[in-house]
Specification:
Elements (H helix, E strand, L loop, with lengths): L1 E4 L16 H11 L3 E4 L7 H10 L9 E2 L1 H8 L4 E5 L2 H9 L3 E2 L6 E4 L7 H12 L3 E4 L5 E4 L2 E4 L1 H12 L3 E3 L5 H12 L11 E4 L2 H10 L3 E5 L19 E3 L2 H11 L1
Helix pairs in contact: 1-9, 5-6
């Protein structure tokens, strides 16, 4: 059984095209009835829209086999007044989902991926958090890769606000326990009685996905097609990795050999 990351694992960071073996891996899972969940930290587009985008690229993801932070957020925070920080698309999606933008007296601060954070944004996050707004990270990624550069991720930005205000925070997407538990509940619909120890997670992100997955007793497969090209520079103990592959194409070859 598998949890499969999207960006850098199934899709290229550079142009969002399919990585070699990505389509074939999902097809193989479908043909062999191998339980899987495609997991992503998408924070720009509504879940159904992003899933359809993946399918339009050739990934034949079956129903109830997809999970992103928006799927989990609605269980944590019902529509209310929020102060969202991140890409324009994220803010629009939050409005489409029924939340009201409010940077004066919001119930929660939501931090997502974005390209143009300013110090004024960080100051406002601090002020709103100290005024009682909940601090919510849409995911806990430490590094955000774009155009070949490595930027502080949502988790890193949230940690900065948490340190500067001493206010607690929660994360909605990977690698939060709530997210992984929701993914496990989905996979139990495919295979009754599944546990974390039955899951192999495939991802390009050691810190953002695999460290916490290993803590939950999942098997960890790192692919070198995204954020990490040299595992020794990942900043974590490589002992948490069960396998390292150049890409999902080699994982497919390995799985295929077992069948």
């Amino acid at each position: 059984m598998y949890f499969v990351d999207v960006q850098g694992t199934l899709l290229s960071d550079s142009d969002k095209s399919l990585i070699k073996g990505a389509k074939e891996l999902i097809d193989f899972f479908n043909q062999k009835d191998i339980p899987y969940i495609v997991i992503t930290n998408n924070t720009k587009f509504k879940s159904d829209d992003f899933l359809e985008n993946l399918r339009s690229k050739g990934l034949d993801i079956k129903d109830n086999a997809y999970l992103d932070p928006f799927c989990v957020l609605k269980e944590i925070l019902a529509p209310c007044n929020i102060a969202p920080f991140g890409a324009i698309e994220f803010k629009q999606t939050m409005q489409d989902l029924g939340y009201t933008l409010d940077y004066n007296d919001p119930k929660a601060i939501l931090i997502a991926s974005g390209n143009d954070f300013k110090f004024e944004d960080f100051a406002l996050m601090n002020e709103l958090a100290l005024n009682g707004a909940r601090l919510i990270a849409m995911h806990g990624t430490s590094i955000y890769k774009k155009n070949g550069r490595l930027y502080p991720g949502v988790g890193a930005i949230t940690a900065m606000i948490r340190v500067s205000t001493s206010v607690g925070s929660i994360a909605v997407g990977k690698p939060s326990v709530a997210f992984y538990e929701r993914a496990l509940n989905l996979i139990k619909k495919q295979r009754h009685g599944a546990e974390f120890s039955d899951i192999t997670i495939i991802s390009d992100d050691v810190k953002g996905d695999l460290v916490d997955a290993k803590a939950l007793n999942m098997k960890t497969n790192l692919v070198l097609s995204g954020k990490v090209s040299n595992p020794k520079k990942s900043g974590v103990d490589l002992a948490i990795l069960d396998e390292i592959y150049p890409s999902v194409n080699e994982i497919l070859e390995n799985i295929n050999a077992k069948y």
